[in-house]
Write a structure and sequence with these properties.
Layout (H helix, E strand, L loop, with lengths): L6 E2 L10 E6 L11 E11 L2 E4 L11 E4 L4 E12 L2 E8 H5 L6 E2 L1
Antiparallel strand pairs: 1-8, 2-3, 2-5, 3-4, 4-7, 5-6, 6-7
C-alpha cells in the first residue's frame, strides 16, 4: 500500500475507453500556481503513447496521468495535437521510461 505522496505504478496497460485524470501545474508561471486536474478517456494508441481526450495545457506536460479504474500512475502527459474539432493529448506510457524498474511505487 502506498504511503502519502506515493502512487502505485499501473501493472496493466490502459485500454480504449478507460477514464484518466491529468494532474499538473499549468499556471505555475503565473498567478496561483495551484495544481489542476483534467479528465478524459484513452482514445487510441500511437506507438509508446496513449492518445487521450483529456485536456493537456502548457504546464500539465510532465505532470502525472492517473488511470482511474486502478488508481495508478499511467504515464507522463507530454503534448497535445490541435486540429479540426478536437484536441488530443499524448501520454508517454510509464512502461516506456520505467522499463526495467521492478518496483510498484512512484515517489
Amino acid at each position: 500500500m502506498p504511503n502519502k505522496g506515493e502512487m502505485r505504478v499501473c501493472k496493466k496497460p490502459g485500454t480504449i475507453g478507460d477514464k484518466i485524470v491529468i494532474l499538473g501545474y499549468p499556471g505555475a508561471g503565473g498567478t496561483g500556481g495551484s495544481i489542476t486536474a483534467t479528465d478524459g478517456i484513452i482514445s487510441s494508441y500511437d506507438e509508446q503513447y496513449y492518445v487521450t481526450s483529456a485536456k493537456i495545457d502548457h504546464g500539465n506536460s510532465g505532470g502525472a496521468a492517473i488511470l482511474v479504474k486502478d488508481n495508478c500512475y499511467l504515464g507522463i502527459p507530454t503534448w497535445a495535437e490541435s486540429g479540426g474539432f478536437e484536441s488530443y493529448g499524448r501520454i508517454l506510457s510509464q512502461s516506456y521510461f520505467l522499463g526495467p524498474f521492478k518496483g510498484d511505487i512512484v515517489r
